[in-house]
Amino acid sequence: MRRTDLFGLGFMAPALILTIMFFLAPVVMTGVYSFTNMSTATGISGGAYLISPATIRSLTEQGFQGDAIERLSSESYVVDEAGLEAAEAAGYTPRFIAEIRSTLLGDTFTGRRDFERALKDLSHRPRSIRDLKKATELFQKSVLNVRFETEADFQSALSSLNLNLSPAEAVFLTETAYTGWIWTSANYDRAVNLPSTYRATANSAIYVTFTLAFNVGFGLFLAITTFYLPSGQAAFFRTIWFLPRILPPVLYVLMWKWLTWDTGFLSTLLSHFGVPPHNLMKHTATHAWVVVVLINGFVGASMGMILFSSAIRSIPQSMLHASEVDGANRWQQVRYIILPQLRWPILFTTAYQTLSLLTSFEYILLSTNGGPGSATNVWALYAFKIALNNYGGNLEYGYGAALAMVLVIIGIIASLFYLRLFNFKSMITSPRIEQ
Amino acid sequence: MRIELKNFKKTFGDITVIEDMSLSLESGEMLALLGPSGCGKSTTLFAICGIHRMTGGQLLFGDRDVTLVPSQQRNVGVVFQNYALYPHMNAYENIAFPLMIRKEDRKTIEKKVSEIAALVHIGELMERKPAQLSGGQQQRVALARALVREPDILLLDEPLANLDAKLRLEMRSEIRRIQQQTGITAILVTHDQVEAMSMCDRIAIMNKGDIVQLSSPQDMYQNPNSEFVASFLGNPPIAFLDGVVTDGGVQLASSEALLPLRGQHGLPSSGMPIRLGIRPEHFQPENPLKVTGRISFVETQGREELYDVTLSNGSVLRSIQRQGGGYHLGDEVSWGIAENQILAFDASGARLHMGALA
């Protein structure tokens, strides 16, 4: 490699590192997580094996029956050599142990009480009841609510229950009992099968379409109207319409809330005309959509306004003069001269805004928070709530990652489509406006 | 159509560009507004086409007062310096644009566009976008667009400035041909005296917002009414000798040399300062009124050769001669001035009319 190449690489290195750290790595990690069932319940490190009442329920639902379920869910005590050895090690008298061996070896008790009673009947039993109760524990063979750190421990505990399971059932039981995360593609199946997914898809489509239309339309309107204003006034109006973008989002949305609350500005104003106060932000789905589109639209329009304004100003003055002497009035000038030459900025803004709107949800989160109901719950917000801000408390990282992954894929497809549409190469090599 | 501009005044904020200017064009005439940059010639053009509002005065197209008529309704055709073609339309659409705006029907538009395209010789380029046209072709499209609506007046704003030398020569005669064929009244704004002289019936020389002389090219060259006009016209330019009028003729400044202009009347009284303008073609070896100097610069122009001759007082005279004179840089020469071709000016730059004593 030549020195200059190394030099160039050196200059690019910070950008490369940042791209890898803050873009590629998150995307790859999201992809990886989306194939797990990680959640608050499974944790992200590892897990243990545990049969809980909930496990029993799900086993029953899966068709486990009779004996096996009975044994898994009951407490059982088996008098065997292993238990006797444990008792010896725990310091019980040899006579007591010998007596248990001779009278009870091989017996199974299905309840603690029964086994205790049997031990009480022995003549060499310990004096203290507490010691007696402790002795019962040494013979306990139940797995219910016992945490096994390794699969081997769990399997040996199961084998002592004599469940007589088929291999498939045994595997299923082990999987169900595992509390840690596992690799799975179930997230995607789940996304396809849940109606709420389709709701979020439709919401995202509505959100992107309407906000985009408003952004671009209003941005164009502002750019064109300010173009025809004297420069001082134009700068004044541009500054005003730029405010939503430079305002901190939380403050900006708070002001919208203040405007639309049932005790806010609009309701108070309308109440003088006999209109009953509503929360205009969340009264109905339509109200919520209008507010969401406006909140995002005004922010987005400011960018369109700036881009379009500079594009209009780059049209040579003489071209506008020419159209005037050719007889075109203002409207015809806009329609035939200005708009056709804004084709590229409009396409660019549309492309850029589509991608950023698809993934943005901060203004919705701050304003309607997806409500009323889930009327404005767009895909990105849906994924965020599932993965990171779940009301129920069980954050489903894996499922959320799968939902986010879908957005990444849609984003990449849209980018490729737009690049194709723009013929990006030709855009950067030749100027669009002849001087 | 006859065009008349009366007492035109134009100010931009506090700056007065044109104080009081009047100008009239005969129907079918082509007039050049010639002057250095900043003299107000483009301002005048923009006022006539209505892009700039007139601060004062009156503008008549024929008998119609268009002073307050917006440019959209004035019916003027303008060719801009950079042609101002619409880049997103092809040549046909560009030319058809004024008619399309006027909502003429498609048949009429097609007919008019093809007629005008044939006139400016771009019939085969109609599908091309401006970016695919050469400078000269763009110029022709711009001309066609300006002419297609049969305007009352054609305004050309430095139309040749963006062309290379060869094309400039070609378009010069082309524009004149098209103007004469259509018989349209036209105004050409230019800072190039060659363009003005070769293309126009009359020239209005402007300086600092005022027309200093309005005349035919030939008359203006031979009879400039001021030093400014004399120095503006002619290539290579006129040379000046400063001096003082004495009894015997003109005593050149800081020099012993005396030009014995005895045969002239109209000289101011003795002791007055005077400037003598001598065009290069009137300073030749064979002329009788000899001046001595040293050749300080030689420029070969092919058919002719241009010499700068520095006199002993530092003044420079120019002479243009046929090839083959055999003079070299540094030669001391004694060439003559054509006495009756001398243009004399007073200290303020105004022309002093002299004539031979008959």
Automatic annotation (TrEMBL), chain A:
It is found in: Cell membrane. It comes from the Bacteria. It is a multi-pass membrane protein. The keyword Chaperone does not apply. CDD domains: TM_PBP2 (cd06261). Residues 201-418 form the ABC transmembrane type-1 domain. Keywords: Cell membrane, Membrane, Transmembrane, Transmembrane helix, Transport. GO terms for biological process: transmembrane transport. One of its GO terms (cellular component) is plasma membrane. The chain crosses the membrane at residues 7-29, 205-229, 241-259, 288-309, 344-366, 397-419. InterPro entries: ABC_transporter_permease (IPR051393), MetI-like (IPR000515), MetI-like_sf (IPR035906). Pfam families: BPD_transp_1. Its main location: membrane. Belongs to the binding-protein-dependent transport system permease family. PANTHER family: ABC TRANSPORTER PERMEASE PROTEIN, INNER MEMBRANE ABC TRANSPORTER PERMEASE PROTEIN YCJO. This is ABC transporter permease. It comes from Pseudovibrio exalbescens. The lineage of its organism: Bacteria, Pseudomonadati, Pseudomonadota, Alphaproteobacteria, Hyphomicrobiales.
From TrEMBL, chain B:
It comes from the Bacteria. It is found in: Cell inner membrane. Residues 3-233 form the ABC transporter domain. InterPro entries: AAA+_ATPase (IPR003593), ABC_transporter-like_ATP-bd (IPR003439), ABC_transporter-like_CS (IPR017871), ABC_transpr_MalK-like (IPR015855), ABC_transpr_MalK/UgpC-like (IPR047641), Mo/tungstate-bd_C_term_dom (IPR008995), NA-bd_OB-fold (IPR012340), P-loop_NTPase (IPR027417). It is a peripheral membrane protein. SMART domains: AAA (SM00382). Keywords: ATP-binding, Nucleotide-binding, Transport. Its main location: membrane. One of its GO terms (biological process) is carbohydrate transport. GO terms for molecular function: ABC-type transporter activity; ATP binding; ATP hydrolysis activity. Pfam families: ABC_tran, TOBE_2. One of its GO terms (cellular component) is ATP-binding cassette (ABC) transporter complex, substrate-binding subunit-containing. Belongs to the ABC transporter superfamily. PANTHER family: MALTODEXTRIN IMPORT ATP-BINDING PROTEIN MSMX (PTHR43875), OSMOPROTECTIVE COMPOUNDS UPTAKE ATP-BINDING PROTEIN GGTA (PTHR43875:SF1). This is ABC transporter. It comes from Pseudovibrio exalbescens.
